[in-house]
Design goal:
Helix content: 25-40%
Number of helices: 5
Radius of gyration: 15 Å
CATH superfamily: Gcn5-related N-acetyltransferase (GNAT)
Low-confidence stretches: none
Oligomer: single chain
Mean pLDDT: 95
Order of helices and strands: EEHHHEEEHEHEE
Number of strands: 8
Shape: globular
Largest sheet: 5 strands, antiparallel
CATH architecture: 3-Layer(aba) Sandwich
Structural class: alpha+beta
CATH class: Alpha Beta
Number of domains: 1
Length: about 170
Amino acid sequence: MKVLFETPRLQVRTFAATDDAFVLELLNTPSWLQYIGDRQIRTLADAQRYIMNNLLRLYAEQGYGAWVVVLKETGKPTGICGLFKRKYLEQPDLGFAFLPAYEGLGYAYEAATATIEYSRQQLPFSRLFAITQQDNHRSVRLLERSGFTLQGTILPPGEVEELMLFDLELGS
């Protein structure tokens, strides 16, 4: 695992196979299941496969992906934040999710704004997108507070529900 950047309270690093218990817990939280979807991760072995086949593979293929957000004070993983390349979007989108015990404490905002800054300085993108369900009011507020602008809605291929589409110019 590699530390990519830090904030006053957080460290953001790449995933490792040893993050399996964290992945198992996060991907089965009520908010993950409601707003992101059921990935059918039910065992530590499922979580390890998910890490290897999805998360680590994206680093190799794209040079970015989802990253673990860790509390500096304790070293405990609290959530994820990172960039996701969707086939139906021309640039990556910012995504984040946190364990319930760490929601509402400003960690998501801190990680999101640091990820935006990291993208601006280290990655070759002129803009980022973000998508969320229309009833995910906490994510909408976080995106707007982070500088994203609502562009409208989008119906991703194979989906039945339109998602809110936000974008953020990163500048040159």
